[in-house]
Amino acid sequence: MKKGAIYARYSSDKQNQETIKTQMEKCREFCDRQDILVCETFVDEARTGTTEGGREEYARMLDMAERGFFDTIVAYKYDRIGRSFVEAVRSIGELERFYNVAVYSATEPSEPLVRNILLSVAENFSRQLSARMHDTMTSNAGEGFHNGGAPPYGYVAVKTPSGRTDRKGNPIMHVRFEVDPEQAPIVRRIYREYGDGLSMAQIAHRLNVDAVVSPGKGTWDLGAVRYILFNEAYRGWRVWNKTKKVRKPDGKKTFRFRPRSEWVITKEAHPAIVDDNLWNAAEEAQRRKERHRQNGGGSRDGLLPLLADRAGQVRGLREELPGPHHQEQRNVKELRVLSLRVPRPARVRRLHQRQPHPPGTA
Prior knowledge:
With 362 residues, the protein is α/β, with parallel strands linked by helices. It folds into four domains: 2-124, 3-Layer(aba) Sandwich (Rossmann fold); 127-179, no CATH class; 184-291, Hect, E3 ligase catalytic domain fold (Alpha-Beta Complex); 305-353, no CATH class. Helices cover 37% and strands 19% of the residues. The protein is built from ten helices and twelve strands. It has helices spanning 17-33, 56-66, 85-98, 112-142, 184-195, 200-209, 222-228, 276-294, 332-335, 345-354; strands at 2-10, 36-45, 72-75, 102-105, 155-165, 171-179, 238-240, 243-247, 253-257, 264-266, 306-308, 314-317. The strands form five sheets. A four-stranded parallel β-sheet has the order 2-1-3-4, sandwiched between helices. A hairpin with a 5-residue loop joins β11 and β12.
């Protein structure tokens, strides 16, 4: 009797435990017919199949297969192994050739040619489905609706009927933003203080001193303040298609900005928290800071300024602390400057000595 393992996966919230139950039942029926003893089961829940990255159970299955715990793997369909044609073919080939582990589908033929055709069809279907979903979400954004995720700090999500129903007759709900009366004044305060010339670090410090609850229910930091500043949602705009999701070779997700020409911008999509005067004042403050930085007046907002003379001698490393007084920090370890690289004075002098002297100055 062969020793086997069952692998099941559902890839989104629209699928559920019933999907896993059906997959497991079909796989067990197949194993019974083929006289395969099921030694282990692996289930990845709410994982996409486009790559193996991030699927913990799938990775555990490969590790056990390599160590010889079983000689057969059964999945409901081959696209459960991975809907990426290249990824699935590579994984199946590796299992069969190097580890002598056979891979079967409980519902599809096992001939290699047919299997490859089915995987190719599944990959194409996945791409078409993604394109259709993207088109639908673009249309929703154009009408001012939210496409998912938590609302920005200062807003609450409110569901409204779209006037349409799904295949089962249930009403399709759209999501719009409404102003949170408790958080909206905090957003305006951040814009007002930034427009008045305060840095992001100073704003975060003042919010923490006043015990204002942050978006993450913790303390305010540069990231939290930066997230709010220049977020078009606070103008009442809905901006969609600003980024695209890309998967790296290791399966992890990352995001890339799209050209502005591809953005879908809907003005007056929801009530604005920040009016034009506050928005423009903050933008002008940012331009002033950028000009100041370009003119050698300091680093970007939130970074530690480094002052060095022409020979590279470091004159001081300081952090401007928020509040009415500024304090020089002498302990670099406390500042946790982990990635700041300072040229060594001796090296700077050598480089300076190599520079050719201007005519007549030797």
